[in-house]
Amino acid sequence: MATNPPTKTTILDTFTTLVTNTNTVSLDLGATGRLNTNEDSSAVAAINELELGIRGTSNNLVATDLADFTANNIVSALNELDSDLHGSGGGNAKADLTTNAKAIVDGINELEVGIRGTSNNLVATDLATTANDLVTAVNELDSDIGARPHTNLTTTAKTLTAGVNELDSDIGARPHTNLTTTAKTLTGAVNELDALQGNVTMGTTASTITGAVREHDLELGTITSGAMGTNASTVSTAIAELDSDRDVLITFVEPKQAINTTATTVADAINEHEADIGTVGNLTTSASNLTSAVNELDTELGTITAGAMGTNASTVSTAIAELDSDRDVLITFVEPKQSLTTTATTLADAINEHDAEIGAASLNTSATTLRGAINELHTEVGTAISGDNLTTGNIGSSLNLLDSAVGDLANFNTDGSVSNRTNVVSAINSLADDISLLDSDGTVRDNRLGSLNDLDAAFVGAERDNFVAALNALRADIPLIYDENGTQLN
Predict the structure, then answer these.
(1) Terminal-to-terminal C-alpha distance of the chain
(2) Residue-averaged pLDDT of the chain
């Protein structure tokens, strides 16, 4: 389970706490074997790999490299692009496009074929009109055809239909029963149309109806659905079709909406985004397109929240910075580059080695920690061990000195004068028994015990009056010795 606050170990903490904290940090970081990145030798290498995939060779923060976006992180930037392409709330190109193609690039290409045909030139280059866009060009053609009535026609009729019918009548037989006018003669039909339409001036270079029609025919080009790239096969229906497509395109592209790119046209903006995105073929993900690659990275990154990542930070970059800071603290505390004096070469093994050397037996002291128990024993021993033949504060040295002062049991007389030589007390009791058996004859006493005059000069005063006084003086010189449980040993 991840921890919210940083795991910290102070110099006063126990080895158990250090082990627990080390395991906690290890669990928070996770096992490197579970990393899905190519680099899985360490968390740092995996993070660097993700950083390279996200930022490329840039050393800037992601928010800095996203300077052309309002967003300052990858997820928000992608949402922003989605909103720019599909409008508020985003969308799906396949569902939103009304073209036969269901991808943005293919849809634009489809419209391009519908507008330019097989030409690779710009629309302005292919147009033979003064205008360099479709709407203005159509208006220009309408102006070239002229307003009604066409007073500049050289026919008697001053409208296109009547003029053509007049010419047809001049060319063909009369009466023209196919005329849609009431009159079935050219003159009557032209007069009828003339009365309805009035005079009109042609805007063509040609001054004759034939020349004007030819001029318009050349300007219009071949009028077939194949030549125009439309489903419609007439100019008016083709224009209506393009107008409908234009309305869809305007709704989709929103030309009046400001573009957040440096470029000011859709094509340049798409090229700019293409340059910002880079070559999709260079993706190092399993996915081969941008959306799937982002989804793949999103899956690898997991849920990006403070709770899910176990950090205070709620974004990847700040979480990494937080872990990096914690890692620096841990490195400072653990000092991984400092050589261990244990046989083990890793921190966990070194702690286990110390744990084995210390042992798992319970302490008999009031203190429950090793340091506390040593301090407790040190306080109990203290400076009580002092005096003749003793070393202050050193039990081992004092015992060795006392053993030397008391002597070796093996050195008791073996002539039978000391009947019990198992320990000093028994030996003294044995001598006491012998003394009680002594008669009043000083000769026997002196032979068995020795003369008081032979006592060492260190015995003074009343200590030389009798053997009891001498032994008591000797006893007083011997300090009391206790074992670790407080039991007196002498």
Answers:
(1) 59
(2) 77
Structure tokens belonging to residue 256: 């009046």
Alpha helices in 209-315, H assignment, sequence order: 209-220, 225-228, 235-253, 266-277, 290-301, 306-309
Q: Which amino acid is at 195?
A: A
Residue that terminates a domain, selected from 220, 250, 280: 250
Question: Nearest to residue 163, comparing CAs of 219, 205, 223, 207?
Answer: 207
Residue range 229-260, pLDDT digits in tens: 888 888 888 888 888 888 888 888 787 888 88
Residue 73: inside a domain: no
Distance of alpha carbon 405 from alpha carbon 412, whole angstroms: 14
| 118/217 Cα distance (integer angstroms) | 20
381, 459: one domain:
no
In a domain, 43, yes or no: no
Integer Cα distance of 83 and 88 in angstroms: 5
- Rounded to the nearest 10 degrees, the angle between the axes of helix 43-55 and helix 316-334 is 150
Look up the domain containing 415 and give its range: 406-477
Structural domain count of the chain: 3
Answer whether residue 85 is part of any domain: no
Contact, 283 vs 293, CB < 8 A? Answer: yes
